[in-house]
Amino acid sequence: MWRGQAQFEETRQQFQKHPVVGQWKPLATASRGQELQQPEPSATDLGGGDENQSVAQLNVSRLRSSSVEIREKGSEFLKEELHRAQKELKLKDEECERLSKVREQLEQELEELTASLFEEAHKMVREANTKQAASEKQLREARGKIDMLQAEVTALKTLVITSTPSSPNRELHPQLQSPSKAVFRKGHGRNKSTSSAGGVAAASQSPPLEPASSEFKEVDSILFAEFQAWKESPTLDKSCSFLARIYHEDVGPCLDFTKHELSELIQAAVEQNTLNIEPVATQALPVVKVSAIECGGPKKCALSGLSRACRHRIKLGDSGNYYYISPSCRARITAVCNFFTYVRYIQQGLVRQDVELMYWEIMRLRKEMSMAKLGFYPSEM
To answer: Comparing C-alpha atoms, which of 164, 146, 152 is closest to residue 273?
Structure first.
């Protein structure tokens, strides 16, 4: 209970204990503008009435001051509460605004993180696809190389590396020689039938023997040194002294035909291993057109320009043109191809022989090129 209410109750109790006796002057006016006549209070009434009226006025003033004070304090209290509520509301608004900004920032960072993660995932997928494609390409190339090497190994198993099927090297393969011969690999020959008289008699009774080979061989120190230097690091570069000499002395002259432009193309195809030689069909062929005269025909060689029976034709790389060649030109091209094939085998490490044996095989292939250049070739050509 407020202090003003306590005073109000105390004053009300005093009024009940000491009632005010007197006349009250009405405030209302007469109906016709005339004031009602009231009896004049007596002296006794005036004396007691003044005292009671003073007490009443005092109490009323106290009551009024208490109510005013109550209203002022209530107003101040309400203002303070309102001000405190406004401050709390402002703080809450600021907190809400701060939390809203934090939420927006978190949402933005989450979106950026999601976008970066998706971009990184796509980048990783692209890199994985690229690596997979490169790996598949390398796998295909490796399989192609394996197939090529297997084909070469199969070919090496069926052929003797140091000789060609058309002209095997009998000195390096004694099993191909006649039983009546006994020739040493070093080139030194001796006929055992002449070592004793009994041998002479036996020889006279036996069928006549083939004459022993009188060919002797001697290693050229310069050529052998060049070959050894090349063998240390085999290459197909023309700048090395070993191949430069062979190009100048054997390959160039052997592939020097009348048609010089076509000769250069053939030499390039032989070096790149893209030359194809195939036999010509035996059936009658149509007459060659004028636009195809440069390619020759079944009865005209495209390299020499001479009228010869051409049983083979060549194709350079992926070109669709075929050139008919004579047996002599085929022998010259084949001799050069045999030389490059053997050199490639040495470069790839497929030849497992002594250096001197490889040197003599090189010399034999050079001999074939020289003989083919001079016009000698086997009859089966």
So the answer is: 152
Give the model confidence (pLDDT) of 317-345 as tens digits. Answer: 888 789 999 999 999 999 999 999 999 99
Contact (CB, 8 A) for 297 and 325? no
Mean residue pLDDT of the chain comes to 75
Retrieve residue 66's tokens: 């208490």
Which helix (H) or strand (E) segment holds residue 174: the answer is none
- In order, the DSSP letters of 178-205 are -TT--B-TTS-B--GGGSSHHHHHHHHH
Instruction: Take residue 376 and report the two structure tokens written for it.
Output: 């000698």
Return the C-alpha torsion angle 348, 354, 357, 359, nearest 10.
60
Q: State the sign of the Cα–Cα–Cα–Cα dihedral 54, 57, 63, 67.
A: negative
DSSP H helical ranges for the chain: 3-17, 43-158, 197-205, 221-232, 241-246, 252-254, 260-272, 327-347, 355-373
* Structure confidence at residue 366 (pLDDT): 94
Structure tokens at 309: 């029976």
Q: Per-residue pLDDT tens for 227-236?
A: 999 999 999 9
Tell me what percent of the residues of the chain surpass a pLDDT of 90. 39
Contact 365, 352 (CB under 8 A): no
Q: pLDDT tens digits, residue range 160-184?
A: 444 444 455 454 444 444 444 433 3
Contacts of 305 (CB under 8 A, 6+ apart): 258, 259
17 vs 15: CA distance, rounded Å:
5
Separation of alpha carbons 150 and 152, rounded Å: 5
Distance, in Å, from the CA atom of 69 to the CA atom of 3, rounded to the nearest integer, reads 10
Contacts 24+ apart (CB under 8 A), 46-53: 48/21, 48/22, 49/20, 49/21, 49/22, 52/18, 52/20, 52/21, 52/22, 53/20, 53/22
What pTM was computed for the model? 0.45
Q: In the chain, what is the straight-line distance between the N-terminal and C-terminal CA atoms, in Å?
A: 141
Alpha-carbon torsion, ordered 280, 283, 286, 287, to 10 deg: 70
